[in-house]
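Customer escalation, tier 2.

The customer says the design service returned an amino acid string that "doesn't look like it belongs to this structure." They asked us to rerun it and document both sides in this ticket. The original structure tokens are below, unchanged.
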């Protein structure tokens, strides 16, 4: 199973970082359904701006945590 960490750019130019095993389904959820994150529901549409694949959940979750510790400026540099 593939594990992904992703960053979305919201309509208000804010960034949202998340984890999933199915990026297409998750992106659809963020943009079209009630299952998207509470944060992105009021900031649609969202655009995928970063995607990284990992072999296991543990390494993906560690990367997600590291990204979430970055400032907005650092995240933009990373992109």
């Amino acid at each position: 199973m593939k594990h992904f960490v992703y960053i979305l750019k919201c309509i208000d130019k804010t960034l949202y970082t998340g984890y999933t095993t199915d990026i297409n389904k998750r992106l659809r959820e963020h943009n079209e359904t009630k299952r998207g994150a509470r944060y992105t529901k009021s900031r649609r549409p969202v655009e995928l701006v970063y995607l990284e694949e990992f072999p296991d959940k543990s390494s993906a979750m560690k990367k997600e945590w590291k990204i979430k510790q970055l400032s907005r400026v650092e995240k933009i540099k990373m992109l």
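Tier 2 assessment: The sequence is consistent with the input. The mean pLDDT is 96. The helical segments are 23-32, 38-41, 57-69, 72-78. Sent an explanation to the customer and offered a walkthrough call.
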